[in-house]
Amino acid sequence: xxxxxxxxxFPIEFDNGDKAVIYFNPNDREIQTRIQGFERSIxxxxxxxxxxxxxxxxxxxxxxxxxxxxxKLLEMSADELKALQGRLDAVNEIEAEYNKAVKDELDVxxxxxxxxVAFRYCQPFDTVIVEDENGNEKREMYIMHFIHWLMVxxxxxxxxxxxxxxxxxxxxxx
Length: 174
Description:
- The protein is of the alpha+beta class.
- The chain has helices at residues 31-47, 52-58, 78-110, 115-118, 142-170, and strands at residues 8-13, 19-24, 127-131, 137-141.
- The chain has five helices and four strands; from the N terminus they run ββααααββα.
- A hairpin with a 5-residue loop joins strand 1 (8-13) and strand 2 (19-24).
- The longest helix has 33 residues, at 78-110.
């Protein structure tokens, strides 16, 4: 006997032409609740990140960086450059902790490692350019773009599933 996990393949096509598949059970009775709690779970995880451990790397004397004149970086002292590098490293580490929180929570929602596929090319908080319903370009966080795609796919699956169920039950409703 072979038991079904109920997992369904949801193909993803990235804008670079790469294709991948994520698997999860769209009929899982708790998935909607977990999806709705996803944002709260991420907020909770992010609040638990200890930002104090990075505070010392944001202290220190660094001249204002004129983004209009990046060559001014060449005029910074070695100590200023070291302090600036410390800040950049801290920002990257904080961002990595935020990204990990999102990936972990997404995997919990769907009961498997879909984050490895979903975030193959982008991190959750990266900004991507997408087209809206009217074909206009807009920018949004990748995680929002992914969740929107997922909701569209779940609705399509639900409609197909309902149609098949209605067809099956029609013979009993005569």
